[in-house]
Amino acid sequence: MTDTTHGTIESHSLEVESYPPSAEFTAQANLNDPAVYWQAAQDPEAYWAGRARELKWTKPFEEVLDWSNPPFAKWFADGELNVTANCLDRHVAAGLGDRVAFYFEGEPGDTRTITYGELTHEVKQAANMLTALGVTAGDRVAIYMPMIPETIVAMLAVARLGAAHSVVFGGFSAESLRARIDDARAELVITADGGYRKGRVSALKPTVDDALALAGDGQPLSVEKVLVVKRAGNDIEMQEGRDLWWHDEVASYDGEHTAVGFPAENPLFILYTSGTTGKPKGILHTSGGYLTQAAATHRDVFDLKPETDVYWCTADIGWVTGHSYVVYGPLANGATQVIYEGTPDTPDWGRWWSLIEKYKISILYTAPTAIRACMKVGRQVPEKYDLSAIRVLGSVGEPINPEAWRWYHEVIGGGRAPIVDTWWQTETGAIMIAPLPGLTRLKPGSAQVPQPGIDVNVVDDQGGRVDRGQGGLLTIRRPWPSMVRTIWGDDARFIDTYWAKFGDQYFAGDGARVDEDGDVWLLGRVDDVMNVSGHRLSTAEIESALVEHNAVAEAAVVGADDETTGQAVVAFVILKSQQTLLSEEEAEAALKKHVASAIGAIARPRQVFVVNELPKTRSGKIMRRLLKDAAEGKEIGDTTTLADTSVMQTISQRMRAER
Ligand code: WT7
After folding, report:
1. Half-sphere exposure of residue 611: CA atoms within 13 angstroms, side-chain side
2. Angstrom distance (rounded) from CA 488 to CA 283
3. Tens-place pLDDT, residues 134-170
4. Nearest CA to ligand 1 atom 23
């Protein structure tokens, strides 16, 4: 990466480049009184109770936080609400039925404009259809879809019934999909024939067929029905008795459906994310607290004006950003959004900017990896478009390097739009650390300030706060409304992963430092989790996919710095001695493909190196730190603890030969 600023920056506030909010922006901002921070800090529970009361409750809560059984938090537990009614019916009842909820743009150029009234009608019909298919409160429904309106309709229909969805990103393999279906014991899968990506049809239904035909986890297959949305028109097989066409079914259902309230702690969704071991973790989010924080942060951090803004978050619904900042936060706030099905380079790199011009998008939320990719193509592309409606820019997924920040600010934001760098995680459910655009003096590369009512710390190994100017581990001490409630079906792993290290603080897995002003600079993961294009991948999961291949004896995977994707997967493998079928080059190509088909294209290694040995300590632990140095072309770190100190020499010679 070109960035060298974060982590090494001298924490002297005067030396750090910073951008104060303009007087005009502050004057019109939703939040422009810094008192909000200390007011919330005085009594965080009262603060969050106030934010929760911005929602519509069918039964008001009395109890705010129940932390009597840590780390299992309950928020607003005696209250009841319907999440979907908060996102839809409430706005229609307020006379906003004609407001546009979504401008949808398909990759081939087809468009749809959907108002809140229309979306509500579609969700009600879908809820009636799901009820007829047997979905009730407490069930799980898997969703494996492209980025189209029906995906959102499906999620909201599931939530309306008090059932939980488990959205699986459409880029995941049949094996990954099946593992998630089995873990959640989903009874229904909602999918599409295919979607459009990079100018081609990318099939989805055949992957569902493959997933359901796999052996699975040994228990009887939980899935009874598969609903298929017709999107791309590609040829697919429909299994009699199991598979149903969404549009054929839904048309026969009534558009009236009364939403009932469910307890605030009713599960809303499970979303799987990679951890340090091979098995993905099913992050469980519930209803009232989650919706409260998703909506509040969406309004505050993006300075949303639902009446006039056009908001676009480029994240796919398959990730938590799509859940919190395409579906739940923005819809709870009655926002008007753009959703786009495809990739930024189709038919050419002007596509995103043409959407901003066409829909007069005023708030754009995207990831540093996308910004860097656009930077590489050059500013002459966005400069051809009218981006003058942009007034707030957001960033998420990894630290944004100052060079990308400045480009984003200048070229996309016209030098006027503030950039909010938002730190959060699948587990936190909603934004935790970010500037407030009307209040914060922005520093490129830093997420800066915990949100009002959020208690973030940077601590040493013993859990004590580090001094300003120092680095440490990021923790969260006080429970927050949208926090993960557990790992689905595995309370022990939940405790072990996030709470065992410090006992009374949530350990995020990120390194961070606080500067002299108290601003937080994120420094990346401190565990065996990689961040590739803003997506989390587990070292262990890719290693276990590699050793499943019959040519591989041993494998080690590292996340190496990459100019565009932040980190990239680099694998080192030892082939089985008896395997003679593949040359080294063939093995390297075959293994890249193998990982992509075992986990998904996002996990495909940038490089695979066949080596004779891996660097190990005397106790047999692979020293990935040294492999990471080698993969980044750096001076190899301390090798004195290696069992065989010559291994790294051989590997780095090999790597140099490749360059
Ligand atoms: C990890 C969480 C939150 C939605 C996208 C990713 C990294 C995320 C930032 C940021 C520095 C960031 C962290 C975190 N991360 N946003 N603004 N600055 N790092 O969600 O897949 O759950 O990954 O992404 O390392 O732990 P996720």
Report:
1. 28
2. 6
3. 999 999 999 999 999 999 999 999 999 999 999 999 9
4. 425
CA 327 to chain centre: 13
Residue 321 Cα, ligand 1 centroid: separation in angstroms?
A: 10
Task: Kindly give the distance from the C-alpha atom of residue 77 to the centroid of ligand 1, in angstroms, as a whole number.
Answer: 28
Q: For 527, which DSSP code?
A: S
Query: How many angstroms does the Cα of residue 397 sit away from the middle of ligand 1?
Result: 4
* Separation between Cα atoms, residue 292 and residue 647, nearest integer Å: 53
> Rounded distance, CA 187 to CA 181, Å?
8
* Centre of ligand 1 from the C-alpha of residue 128, in Å: 37
147 within 8 A of 339, measured Cβ to Cβ: yes
Q: Tell me: is residue 312 an annotated ligand-binding position.
A: no
CA distance 463 to 454: 18
Place of tokens 């492999």: 627
Q: Which residues line ligand 1 (CB under 6 A)?
A: 273, 320-321, 396-399, 421-426, 447, 508-510, 522, 525, 531, 534-536
510 is in an annotated binding site: yes
pLDDT tens, residue by residue, 105-127: 999 999 999 999 999 999 999 99
Residue 299 CA to residue 284 CA, distance in Å, equals 24
Q: Which atom of ligand 1 is nearest to the CA of 525?
A: 25
- Do residues 115 and 104 make contact, with C-beta atoms less than 8 angstroms apart? no
533 is in an annotated binding site: yes
Q: Are 253 and 128 in contact (CB under 8 A)?
A: yes
Cβ neighbours for 127, distance < 8 A, ≥ 6 positions apart: 84, 157, 160, 161, 257
Burial 92-105 (b: 16+ CB within 10 A, else e): beeebbebbbbbbb
**ipTM higher than 0.95?**
yes
